[in-house]
Write a structure and sequence with these properties.
The complex is a heterodimer of chains A (250) and B (205).
Chain A: E1 5-13, E2 16-21, E3 24-28, E4 41-46, H1 56-68, E5 73-76, H2 82-90, E6 95-98, H3 100-104, H4 106-116, E7 121-129, E8 135-139, E9 144-145, H5 150-159, E10 164-169, H6 181-188, E11 195-198, H7 204-211, E12 218-221, H8 229-241
Chain B: E1 2-5, H1 12-21, E2 26-29, H2 32-37, E3 40-43, H3 49-58, H4 62-70, E4 75-78, H5 80-83, E5 88-89, E6 95-96, E7 104-107, E8 119-127, E9 141-147, E10 149-152, E11 159-165, E12 167-175, E13 178-181, H6 189-201
The chains are: A alpha/beta (250), B alpha/beta (205).
Chain lengths: 250, 205
């Protein structure tokens, strides 16, 4: 039986690890803790100002993780061409996350899918709640609203034969108050590929609340306090006690 | 010496960092001469079969690998490299594989799986038959998968491992000196590294 996944997402700026809060850097810390043995996957995101361009600082970060973690690695941020993607996959990365580039140039994402296979490409969608309790999707790190309705855009993304969808909540990012269950329930039914949720996980019960949903394959955390061997073990023990099937090897 | 065949599509560095971790000597094979130096092959691959196949054909490596494996060189296929061991794949067209093992690689969408595709994440492998590559690896160990294609019409005698995802999928096969796994041992931490080590040290079929 396929296990529910607990993912760790790390954000980097000019090669330095950051935690973000409401999409702005919160504080920085080192990457010395990298003993992520009970994480199921690691996501590395570049939020450098240097552009949306893939930069060497970030490529070195990726190399560091490939050499030190024998775990699946997913990379996002700054991929705007097949060449960028090739550079990343050539380092030994499993999957690439696309976000704004798909909106700006959908052909890139469909080309990536035909070159690297749909299971190698994830589309991340940043949702924001409006005052009317509706949801809009934003790009460019939450700076720009897209011109399509959320449903229209989601249909379009699914038509590309994307491998996975990451549902991210801008409002709940870094708040540690729990995932936006309304958001997740509202859109997860129409998505027929694996769904990863992110934004708001603050305690183990928050993870349980989303992982118990049939439609949700994985939950992602950016919280530094979740990045220790002990805390990942305790998270998994908690989930197992709640009957969630997760990987827990030794 | 282990030869890691450079298929031009991904995960070579992950395989290499796994081999380094278990202190194994290896070369990355880009030519016939490189193949001559290797006593066992690892055939990795990530991405689409089309790109994989075109790359390996372009490099004139296809027949060279095929001949050596027919003459007994052990080979471990991983993910796309696993798919390449079979007769054909219909991923983005119709491509013939090495035909080392009977079976056709098909989209999981075409075989009525009532589950989300791709199959991505950790799933427990049911060991169907003893194999040196599973030495000291427990039945039902979790390995990391990410794929949307799967081999079908595989003969039972070649099936050494399966997982359940909607239905039973063939995820590990062996035919004499040829072995392949759908999952990524290089990304499956300790148990995965053990499997690679088994191929290197214990696999002498």
């Amino acid at each position: 039986m396929l296990k529910k996944r607990l993912l760790i997402s790390l954000t980097f700026k000019e090669g330095v690890l950051f935690r973000t809060k409401k999409f702005s850097p919160d504080y920085r810390y080192t990457k010395n803790f990298i003993d992520l043995w009970n994480a199921d996957e690691i996501i590395l995101i570049d939020v450098s100002e240097q552009g949306k361009k893939l930069n060497n600082d970030f490529l070195n970060v990726i190399k560091f993780f490939i050499e030190n973690c024998h775990l699946p690695i997913t990379v996002g941020g700054g991929v705007s061409s097949i060449e960028d993607a090739r550079k990343i996959f050539d380092l030994g990365v499993e999957k690439i996350i696309m976000n704004s580039s798909t909106y700006e140039n959908p052909k890139i994402t469909s080309d990536l899918i035909s070159s690297f296979g749909s299971s190698s490409i994830i589309q991340s969608l940043d949702f924001e709640k409006t005052v009317e309790d509706q949801y809009i999707i934003k790009i460019n790190n939450g700076k720009k609203q897209i011109k399509y309705s959320t449903d229209e855009y989601l249909d379009f993304i699914l038509s590309l034969n994307i491998g996975e969808i990451l549902i991210n909540s801008i409002d709940n990012d870094g708040g540690l108050m729990g995932f936006d269950i309304n958001l997740i329930n509202r859109y997860s039914k129409k998505i027929d590929v694996p769904i990863i949720v992110q934004g708001g996980g603050g305690n183990w019960n928050h993870f349980y609340e989303v992982l118990k949903l049939d439609n949700i394959s994985a939950a992602c955390t950016q919280n530094i306090y979740h990045f220790t061997e002990a805390s990942l073990k305790s998270a998994k023990k908690f989930l197992i006690s709640k009957n969630i099937k997760v990987r827990y090897d030794n | 010496m282990i030869g890691v065949i450079n298929t031009g599509v991904g995960n070579i560095p992950s395989i290499c960092s796994a081999l380094k971790k278990i202190n194994c000597d290896f070369i990355i094979c880009l030519s016939k001469e490189d193949l001559d130096r290797a006593s066992k092959f690892i055939l990795p691959g990530v991405g689409s079969f089309k790109a994989f196949y075109e790359n390996i054909k372009k490099k004139d490596m296809f027949d060279e690998i095929s001949n050596r494996v027919h003459n007994g060189t052990p080979i471990l296929g991983i993910c796309l490299g696993f798919h390449a061991l079979f007769e054909s794949s219909n991923e983005f067209g119709n491509y013939s594989g090495f035909k080392f093992i009977k079976g056709k690689v098909q989209s999981m969408k075409d075989i009525d799986i009532n589950e989300r595709i791709p199959h991505v994440g950790w799933n427990n492998c049911e060991i169907k038959k003893d194999s040196e590559i599973f030495k000291e690896i427990n039945n039902q160990t979790n390995f990391y998968f990410t794929h949307s294609f799967t081999p079908t019409s595989v003969e039972t005698k070649n099936i050494i491992g399966t997982v359940t995802y909607g239905k039973e999928l063939v995820v590990a096969v062996q035919n004499h000196n040829i072995v392949g796994v759908q999952f990524h041992p290089e990304k499956s931490q300790k148990q995965g590294l053990k499997l690679i080590k088994n191929f290197i040290e214990n696999f002498n079929a």
